[in-house]
Each structure stands twice: as C-alpha cells, then as structure tokens.
Amino acid sequence: MVTTTTQNPTLDELRWCAERARVPRLRSIRQFAVDELVVPEGQYRGLKLRIHRQPWVGLLLDELASGRWRRSAVLGCVQSGKTLIAFVLLVLYYLFECRESVIVGLPTMDVAADKWRDELLPAIEATRYRDLVPRTGPGSRGGTSNLTAIKFTNGRVLRFMTGAGRDETRSSYTARVVIVTEADKMDTAGEASREADPVSQLEARTFSWDAPQRRCHQECTVSIREGRIWQEHTAGSASRIACPCPHCGGWVTPEREHLVGWQEAEDEMAATAGARFCCPSCGQAITPEERIEMNRRAALVHRGQTIGTDGAVSGPLPRTWTLGFRWNAFNNLFWSPGAIGAREWRAARAENEEEAKKEMLQFWWAQPYQPPELDITPLSFDDLIRRQAPAELRKGFVPSWCEHVTMGVDVGKWTCWWVLIAWAADGRGHLVDYNTFTVPSKDRRVEQAVLDALREFRDEAVLPGWPVIGSDQTRSPDAVWIDARYQGEAVYAFVAESDRRFAPVLGCGTGRHYPKPYRKPKRRSRQVQLIGDHYHVVWLADHDAHVFEIDADHWKTQLHEGLAAPQEAPGAITLYHSTDRNEHTAIAKHFTAEKQVEEFQPGLGTVHRWERVRKKNHWFDCGNYAGVAGHFCGVRVVRPPQPEPEAPPPRRPPLRTPDGRPYLITER
Ligand SMILES: [Zn+2]
Questions:
Q1: 146-197 confidence digits (pLDDT tens)
Q2: Distance 248 CA to ligand 1 centre (A)
Q3: CA of residue 240 to ligand 1 center, whole Å
Q4: Residues of the chain by 3-state class (helix, strand, coil), percent to 5
C-alpha cells in the first residue's frame, strides 16, 4: 500500500489510522486454536480442537492469552494432547497468526527432525496454512536434512537450536519468541558447556527485545525434582487445577494416591472395574461422569492463592513472570479411571517395579521421580531367576554333601514364610526348598493362631524332614530360626515348648524398616551370653528364651554375595533345579526386594544400609536367618569369644549348639 503525504497533518494522521485499522486484529491463542487447529492424530483425528474434550486446555490457553506471563513452564501427562497444545500450537500461533519468526529449542537435531516430521508438519498440513510450507530448501517435501532454519512462504523462519551444539551456534540469531521442548533433556545435553545452561542461552536470544515483549515457553515431561521443568514450575506460579467436589464442594486437586480400588484387584479386569477417584478432601468416591463435570468446571489457582466454595479465587498473584502449569491423569479425560487403574495394576506387578513406578509418576501423574540412593547391590533379579542347581537337585531334596541344614521362618498375620538351606562345611549353600504356611487368624486370636500354625508346621514338616539324595534317609534342619519381631509372645512360647533347634531371632539394621540398628555388645554379661560374628545371643528372662540379635545389614550382604557368586565359587548359594523358567520368580522378587544403598549420614559418614524397594521381602529375611543360623552351626569356623573372667557365669541353662554341645567349647 502506498502512502502519500499531504500538507495536512490531520489528514495524514487520519489516513495512517485508517491503514492501521485494516491490519487484522490478532486473535487470542485460544481463538486461534479453536478456529485453526485440527487434531492430527488419535480418536479425534481430522476434527477441529474442542476445549470441552480436555478442559485443562482452556485453562492453559486463557492464562497464556492473559498477558500476565512472559514465560511458561508446562508439564503434563502423556497422551493428553500435551505436545499438540504446549508445543505445536504455540509454534503455529507465532508463525502464522503473529507472523513472527520463532526459535525452537530442543536437545539434539535428531529430535528436531522427529518433531518436524512427526509433530509440526502433520499439524501444519492439517490446517489452511499448509500452503506456507516451503516448496524448496530445508523442510520442503517432507525432507528432514539440514533443518536448522525453515523459511515459510510468508517470510517467517522456524529456527531449530539444540542444547548440544557449540555455544557460538546459538549466539548469532535473535527472535522475540523461544519455544523449548524436552527442556529437562537439554540441561543434561549441555552439561559440558562452561557457559550458562543451554535453555538460558537460548532465552538470551530474545534479549534484543524489551523485557515485556519477550516470550519463552518451555514444555517437558517431568523427570526429577532437580530437573529444569519442575524447578521452573515450582519457582513460577506453580498453579494447580482445582475441581469442585460434587460431595463436599471443596475445590480439590486429586493426585495419584486418590485413585483407589485397583490395588487389591485380583486381575487387570478387576482393576479396571474397581478403579475410582476419591475426593482428597471428603474421601467420597467420584464417578467417571462426576470427574468429567469437575474438570469442566475447573479453575486455576496460582501459588499462594485460595479458592472459596463459590469458586472465587482470591489472593495476590505470585511475584513471578513464569506461569507454572501442570495437569495429571485426573485431568486427562482421554483416560477413564479404569484405564488408569489397570495401568497402575500392571505397573505394580512389573518385573522392574521401580522402572514401572517411575514411568507411572512421570508420564501419567506428571510428578517427579525420586531415584533411590546409589544402589550397590550386586544381585540382579534376572540373574537370580536363571540361577539353578544341577538337575538332580530338585525341589525338596537335600544334597548328600550337606553338612548342616538350617531354616529361617518369617511370621505374618495370615501367612508364615520359610526357607530351607543346606550347607557344605566350606560354606557352599543350596536352597533346598521354600514355601509358606497359613496362619488361621480368622477364627482365633492372632497369637494363638501363630502358635498353632508353628506347631503344625513343626510336627508335619520340620520334624519328618526332607529326603536326602542317594539315600532313604530324611534330614531335619539343625536350626530353625523364627522372626520374633511381629508376634514375639507366640514365638517365645513356641520356642519354649520345642527342642533347642528352634530359636527366636531379631533382625537389627540401619534401614528404616528395622526397629534399631545393630550394636555389637562390648562384652558378655548375664544377658549377653554369646557374641558371634555380627550376631549375639541375649537371654530374655521374662520369656525364658535365648534370642539371636543379628546384624541384618551385614548378613543380608553375605546372602546376596552368596547368591551372586559364580555357582562353583566358595560360599556360592544355588537354587533347587526346576524345568519351569518361572519357578523362582516369586522368591527372586523377595530376594531383590531390598537394595543396599550407600548414604552419607551426618555424624556417621558413609553407611551401607538395606532399604526396601518392594514390600514383600519375607523370603529374603528367611534366607538371611538361615544364613546366620548356618554360621552358628559351624558352616564357617565359629570363633567363640574368649572367656571373660569378669563376666558372671550364666544364670540360666547354658546356651548349646543345636546338636547339644555347650557353646563355650575351648577349641577355636
Ligand atoms: Zn469432597
């Protein structure tokens, strides 16, 4: 358009205004999205975007359009339209509606090629802007080579920049808008740089614009707390999506722990049928229909703000330019509660539970994953299920070479677990058998039920013994150590009425699931009648019982080393042979239910402790008791403590080894 100037300033002014008026007013990003965006994949493929399908989209776009925020950090669950809304839509809006060049930051140029081919190009081609895609040069004809800059026929440039390149490659190009995808991965990619981190460097590309004009949008699946997106989110507005509960009227934000009904399900179908959300405030169940309605009425509450029962948000905006926006599985209406519950149910039973939990947290609930401390456990689940003794050592058969047989028992309310190990004098071990027996707690007091169950197990299994290979003999264990932590009274009563092979045991350790750490007594005394290798025996006068207190940290390491050692090595422990590849899956889960972690503790320095990663570790405890019992029986050279003259003589019956010898023998 040609503007001619006249000698009349007023006329000039009017003419200028008229020209400006012809420039179409920019639509808001929400309006643009609704008018132009076409869903490129999934169940709504080919259809225009409709906010009511995913109400969080409306909350996000209204915030972005509000003009309050110069920056945004957006994190949400996968398969909810996250990339389409928080990345593709923004790129399209600035390129085609605002007609501006855009810098897109991503971890590598391989990711750039993927994003262009799989996300951006299909989305553009679904809109009326498809004609703006260049016909020659980078980005034309579906090509993905040399994608550094794609120049559209409207003259605007989409400039890809990575976090991995040399710093100079980023420093020569400027734009008002930077859009970063997979932000957490960029931080890692740029660790080698001694300059500022890659995302900050990219953001510096906007610094030739006035601060209020600049825009920096980041989007990512959450990784860990220290990751960029979580940090930006929490330091930013840390906004939450508040939904009105139909029962109590509270404006609540359900999270992972509020999905219930799948945990106890028998199978995946039951988990699907049973899964339901509950209100975090009143605990009432929320039907699938109520959940949809709650999301459609949702409001956004920024950090420090409150929301009244009438839905009115009050309190000042947090003092930040960054919108921190997050949604989770509750807000993803593409998933039903049943589908989420089924997924959780599968994850809880995955072979690699920790990995599955991480995936659920990050991808489904948009929560950071807290990695366990450094794991220094040598034993892996996969190695363990493959570990098998020679074919003749089938389930329940005691090898002829065995010197001692020991058993560990763990006591529960409904079930007791046991492990039977045969030992050679040189320390080799063989896991002969393991199983559970039922505690009839339904029809009597738990103490009585435990006592009865132990009696029955003793009389019907332990005393008859297990067959020895190559003979018609059976072998009964030399020592049966029973965990006295849970049902002490019942266990002490049982031990008192049984022969001396049966003994109560108390595990001590630095892990959080132990009542106390192990402390080696300084000397023998009236109570401490024996100090062994990381275990000792305490006389409990009240219970008329000798109790083994063991250093579970130490002995669990020994057991793991035995299970991880090459099968021919001294001290190696084998598992009975089975043709079923899945035979040892369950016990392998128990044996790897705890990890040894190295941790710095103020005042103590670096400690190694065993922490649970799975709840069910019973057979691990049993194997551990059987291992210490083996040591006690003499599997390794037992070094009794030197007689200490100052210690008073034992008042109660002297401690004897299971075969009846007094423990304080003079040989060493
Ligand atoms: Zn409620």
A1: 788 999 999 999 999 987 666 555 667 899 999 999 988 876 544 444 456 7
A2: 4
A3: 17
A4: 35, 20, 45
Give me ligand 1 centre to Cα 309, in Å: 11
- The model's pLDDT over 384-420, given as tens digits with 9 standing for 90+, comes to 888 888 888 999 999 999 999 999 999 999 999 999 9
When comparing pLDDT for 11 and 540, which is higher? 540
Q: What is the pLDDT of residues 70-82, one digit of tens each?
A: 999 999 999 999 9
Q: Across residues 537-552, what is the average pLDDT?
A: 89
Q: Higher pLDDT residue, 517 or 586?
A: 586
Q: How far is CA 299 from the centre of its chain?
A: 29
- Output the DSSP codes for 239-253: BEEEEE-TTT--EE-
Is pTM beyond 0.90? Reply is no
Dist. CA 244 → ligand 1 center (Å): 8
CA of 243 from ligand 1 middle (Å) equals: 10
Structure tokens at 221: 């699946």
Cβ atoms of 147 and 109 within 8 Å: the answer is yes
Q: Give me the pLDDT at residue 374, please.
A: 53
* Closest by Cα among 141, 100, 136, 134 to 117: 141
- Report CA(286)–ligand 1 centroid distance (Å): 9
The backbone torsions φ and ψ at residue 224, rounded to the nearest 5 degrees and listed phi first, read -125, 170
Nearest to 638 by CA among 432, 476, 404: 404
CA of 644 to the centre of ligand 1 (A): 67
Count Cβ atoms below 10 Å from residue 469 Cβ, excluding itself. 14
How much distance in Å is there from the Cα of 249 to the middle of ligand 1? Answer: 6
| Three-state SS at 300 | strand
Residue 654 has a pLDDT of 54
Query: 291 C-alpha to center of ligand 1: Å?
Result: 12
Best CA proximity match to 404, nearest among 377, 438, 427:
427
Coil, strand or helix: which one is 639? coil
Most confident of 49-63, 215-229, 644-658: 49-63
Altogether, the residues listed in the chain come to a count of: 668
Residue type, 411: V
| pLDDT for the residue numbered 328 | 97
Question: Alpha-carbon distance 588 to 583, whole Å?
Answer: 10
Cα 260 to ligand 1 centre (Å): 15
311 CA distance to ligand 1 centroid (A)?
14
Q: Which residue has the tokens 């440039």?
A: 157
Tokens at residue 247, please?
A: 């029962």
Report how far apart, in Å, the C-alpha atoms of 377 and of each of 32, 133, 560 are: 54, 54, 8
Q: Exposure string (b/e) for 314-342, b if CB count within 10 Å is 16 or more?
A: eeeebebbbbbbbbbbbbbbebebbebbb
Contact between residue 475 and residue 404 where contact means Cβ atoms under 8 Å apart: no
Gap from CA of 295 to ligand 1 centroid (Å): 14
Residue-averaged pLDDT of the chain = 86
Is the separation of the CB atoms in 105 and 159 below 8 Å? no
Mean pLDDT of 240-244: 97
The whole-number average pLDDT for the span 208-231 is 91
How far does the centroid of ligand 1 lie from the alpha carbon of residue 333, in Å?
A: 19
Residue 626, amino acid: A
- The whole-angstrom separation of Cα 200 and Cα 187 is 10
Domains of the chain (ranges; CATH) run 24-53+79-220 (3.40.50.300), 238-369 (no CATH), 390-580+615-633 (3.30.420)
What are the pLDDT digits (tens) for 82-97?
A: 999 999 999 999 999 9
